[in-house]
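Input (Glutarate-semialdehyde dehydrogenase DavD):
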Amino acid sequence: MSLKLTDPSLLKTQAYIDGHWTNADSGQTYAVENPANGTEVAVVSFCGRDETGRAIEAAHCALRDWQALTAKARSAHLEAWHDLMIAHQDDLAKILTAEQGKPLAEAQGEILYGASYIKWFAEEAKRIYGDTMPSPSPDKRFVTIKQGVGVVACITPWNFPNAMLARKIAPALAAGCTVVCKPANQTPLSAFAMVELADRAGIPAGVINIVSGETVAIGAVLTASLLVRKLTFTGSTAVGKRLMSDCAATMKRLSMELGGNAPFIVFDDADIDAAVSGAMVSKFRNAGQTCVCANRFLVQAGVYDQFVAALSAAMAQLKMGSGDDPSVTIGPLIDGKAADNVRALILDATDHGATQVNTGVKAEFAPTYVAPTLLTDVTSKMRVFREEIFGPVAPIIRFDTEAEAIAMANDTEFGLAAYFYSRDIGRVWRVGEGLEFGMVGINTGAMSNEMAPFGGVKESGQGREGSKYGLDDYLEIKSLCMGGLDQ
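Output:
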C-alpha cells in the first residue's frame, strides 16, 4: 500500500518522551507491516526498560503543573486536540488502514469515534464536582473534592489503535493525570500520529508519552513503578489477569476491558431483516476483530431457517481485499497467526458436526485472509461456542424457549456485550435484565458511543470507559474536615 499523506510529518517512527521524539537507546528497530500484503509500512524504534523508566519520570515531573491548570484550561487543550484530529482525519485513516488492515471507510469511522471521546472528556473536565455533607457537630464542616489519581499507564490493542488510545488518554488528561502509553507493536503509527497532533494542540511536554517495543519489559516497568498509580488495559483476559497480579504489589488502580463472547439472540418475533442488518454490522466490522463482536448467534427454532438464508445472502455481498480499495468491505486479519487460529476454530466445528454454508466469498489473497464463514448445526460443545473467535465466522445455534436462550447466552465466563432482537416489550425487559453482560444491544448491532458506558462484568473486566462514569476511574475522592468553626 502506497501511503500518500497530505501531511507526511504525521508518520512518526520514534518514541515520544517528555516532548521529544527519540530513538531506542540501543538503536534497535522493527518493521511495521501491512497485514493485507506483508509490505513494510515503516521502521519503528524498539524501546525497552530504560526508555519506559524515563517516560514515567517525565509523566511524574509534568503531573503537578498539569494538575494545577484549571479544568477549563485542560478542557481547551483537549478541544484543540480534537479539532486537529478532525482536520487530519483522512491522513490518520490512511495510516490506520496501512498498519491495521481494516477498510478505509472503517478507519475513517474509527478516527471520528476516537475523536468523539476527546471532545466528550474535554467537556466533562469542567464537570468534576465535589459534595458538602451534613456535619455531626456545629464546629465542623465536611466536603469532598475529586483529584486525578496521578500517572496513568495505558496499554492498548491493535484492533482499534486510535480509538482505544483516545478512550484512555482523554479521561486521564481531563482528570488532571499524565500518561505513559504502550500501543500494540503491530499498530504504533496511529498512536504516534495522535501524539504529534497533541503536541501541536499545545499539550505540555511530559503529559503524554508513547513507547513501543519490548512488550514484556515495558509492561514490567509500568506495573512495578511506584510512580504509576493506575493502569488501564484493553486486551485478552489472560494478559489482563497477569497485569492485575503484577500491579497488586503497588496497589494500583485498575481498569480492564478484556475478552468477550457476545451472544446475538434472534427471537421468533424479531424483525428478521433488521436482525440480519445488525448481525452484519456486529459480526463483520473489522473482519470480526472487535471485543464486542457477535460471537454466537442463538436463533429461535421458528425463524432459524429464515435467518440462516437471509444472513447467507447478506454475507455473499461482502468483498474481501486490501483496505485501501474503496470497494472492499472486509479486510485481512492482523497476521497469519490470527488467521490460523480462526481456521482451527472452523475445522474444530466441522469435525464435530457443524455444516459450513457456502456464501460464495473466497479469500484468494495473502495468508492473513479468512473468508466470511457461516456455520450451522453448532452445539455448545464446539470451540466456536466457548472461545472468542476474533474473525469473520458466524456460528448459528438453535434454541426453543426464552429461558433456554438466556441460560445459553450466560453460559460463559465472559460478560462484555450481548445483543438480541425482539418486538415484545415484556421480553425486552426480561431478557435485558437477565443477560449477565455489561452492555446489551436491543434491536441494534451497534451500541458503542462516547456518551454510554463501555465495559464488562465477570472475566470481561472491570471499570467503565466513556460516558459520565468514565472519569471516575481516573479520580480519587478526598474528604476535607474543617474544625474549630464555632470560635
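The two ends are 75 Å apart (CA to CA).
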